[in-house]
Amino acid sequence: MATIDLQRRAEIGRQKRERTRSALIEAALKVVARRGFEAPTIDDFIAAAEVARGTFYNYFETKEALFVAMAAYVADAVDTEILPLVAGEDDPAVRIAIAIRHFIRICKRDHDWGWVLVRTLPDTTGGWSEEMRKGVLDDIRRGKRSGRFKVASVPAAVALGIGTLGAAIRMVLVDRTSGDFPEQIAAITLQGLGMEQEEAARVAAMPLPPIQTR
Description:
By secondary structure, the protein is an all-alpha fold. The chain folds into two domains: 1-61, Arc Repressor Mutant, subunit A, CATH 1.10.10; 70-214, Tetracycline Repressor, domain 2, CATH 1.10.357.10. Helices cover 74% and strands 0% of the residues. The chain is globular and about 55 Å long.
């Protein structure tokens, strides 16, 4: 009985810590949406979240660490919107095209989300969050094994895909882009993965269900 109580207490503590961390990130997103990235200080984020200074530093040592956590939070939220669209889809090319197109559209819809991702563009690890990293790596590896993609290096292919997506998100935030810009980015990414131009364009132009408003 004591063991069960200890386990339950540990789980309650973990859930409480996760709620506090999420509240800090959500408050920080609102601050960034109002004031941008440069102006706010850690004190501003603490005030917005209504927590003690020590509580903030229990989760984030620096403002940059907070921004990285914000990016992972946003990426996972976007993934949550995208995953139902690729559920049951076995073709990695279709999955990647859907993800690219919706990522760009969602960031165009929510500029503050887009700027969080642009500012924290990751290295070649495969995405802004662990779940995104796993998804990208899995799709590219499956595509390579099946012959759908013709890439000599999976890490290089991941770098191509994430780097292109980050640049595309920045473009829709700062420039006027055409309505089919997400499809253009999806098609050129698939070509970079070794697909023929005509097939890449066909996959990138497949009908998509509308994204839900947040």
